[in-house]
Amino acid sequence: MINYADRLQRLPPYIFADLEKLQDDLVKKGVDIISLGIGDPDFPPPRIITESLKNSLTEPGSSNYSTSAGEDYFRNAVAEWYKRRFNVIVDPTSEVCALIGSKEGLANVGRVLLNPGDKALLPDPGYPVYAQGSTILSDATPVIFNLTDDAFQPDLSKVQVDDRTKLLFLNYPSNPTGATIAKDKLESTVEFCRKHNLVLCYDNAYSEICFGSYQSPSVLQINGATECAVEFNSCSKIFNMTGYRIGFAVGNKKIIAGLKKVKTQIDSGSPKFVQRAATTALNEYFDFDLSTERKMNNKILKERLDSLVQGLREIGIETKSPNATFYLWANVGDGATFVRELLKLGVVATPGRAFGLNGAKHVRFSVTQSTTRINEALQRMRRLDLR
Ligand SMILES: Cc1ncc(COP(=O)(O)O)c(C=O)c1O
Fold first, then answer.
1. Residue 347 and residue 218: Cα distance in Å, rounded?
2. What are the tens digits of pLDDT across the range 186-206?
């Protein structure tokens, strides 16, 4: 008889299970599926990155273990990128840690900071790893704060804190809402965390998927942030390197040291050839060709978002095109039913409930398919009976 640990049983049911089963059945029947579900860019990584990967594969030592904290050259590149991109100076040795994707770091930071029975504050709707991979799997309790106003901003005056509350997760540009945050709101969040002795885990995974004149800030630009904050980012969305699994945590020395300590017991780091490719990516970020390619990709994403907004409006679903991310968050009344109906037409979207109770009425579309496929999805959606 196999018994799972209590913490595994406390994980909520896997909300995608039904959906995956339905999707599999349709694929088996030969249905042409258009996936606007997962947030995985359809653009390839820029060529300079794949070339760097190929070259580093044959470098002596590239097949050996790395370290869980990451190679010096990678941490130096992260520190240099923070300096040029955000004007933030960090020490690559004590204030930067490599991650096997930022999801890994977001999950492991719970092990660093939460005792059984402690509480972590997290946004609803929000990326599920904060509540589940990080908090529940650390035997702690997720406590949500609502992002239900029009701009999906936190109202910290309504957040209850007690002496078991240790962490606050925040994510802008936001998955799933696409909302962004203004610097003064970040300032008040840092102040709140310092006042209540909370660690601020700031998830900036979409910092470079921004449109028009909007530039996503780093929490580390805020005065006093290094006393309480750690920021997570990754090469996944910046450079379309999702499958490479390379990210980074930057910030407070004690949190970074704790993260390194946890990771030494769990992993041996991203492969060195991946860290080399990521180093090239970060070093070349400001290079003319690479930045032109990134801007072009962002322009395409924004056009797709705008045309999806327009197409949804034509079938009676009102939503706003976001200033950042490749997600469109739409109130459809009952997200789960809508997604099920959509699936019958061969279109996959994510039910908002996957991001918390506040998402129950919503659906999240990810515009990570070609414009032609998105238009095809819209054509199919016109067949939906929305009465
Ligand atoms: C908000 C947010 N944070 C973090 C991640 C994790 O990304 P990765 O582990 O690829 O860096 C994702 C992935 O979709 C995300 O949406």
1. 35
2. 999 999 999 999 999 999 999
Residue 385: band (very low, low, confident or very high) from pLDDT cuts 50, 70, 90: confident
CA–centroid distance, residue 143 to ligand 1 (Å): 20
Report the candidate in 169, 111, 181 with the shortest Cα–Cα distance to residue 145.
169
Q: What number does the ligand 1 atom closest to the CA of 247 have? A: 11
Q: Measure Cα distances from 168 to 84, 231, 258, 280 in Å.
A: 27, 12, 17, 32
Return the half-sphere exposure (C-beta side, CA atoms, 13 A cut-off) of residue 60. Answer: 0
Q: What are phi and psi of 362, to 5 degrees?
A: -110, 165
CA distance 128 to 124: 9
pTM over 0.85: yes
Identify the DSSP state of 276.
H
Confidence at 387, pLDDT banded by 50, 70, 90: low
What angle (nearest 5°) sits at the alpha carbon of residue 143, between those of residues 179 and 355? 45
Q: How far apart are CA 85 and CA 315, in angstroms?
A: 41
For 2, residues 6+ apart whose C-beta sits below 8 A from its C-beta are none
Ligand 1 centre distance from Cα of residue 184 (Å): 24
- First-residue to last-residue Cα distance in the chain: 49
**Got the DSSP string for 194-215?**
HHTT-EEEEE-TTTT-B-TT--
Beta bridge partners of 171: 203
- Distance between CA 58 and CA 251 in Å, rounded? 33
Rounded distance between C-alpha atoms, residue 253 and residue 93, angstroms: 9
236 lines ligand 1 (CB under 6 A): yes
Determine whether the shortest distance from the Cβ of 325 to ligand 1 is under 6 A.
Answer: no
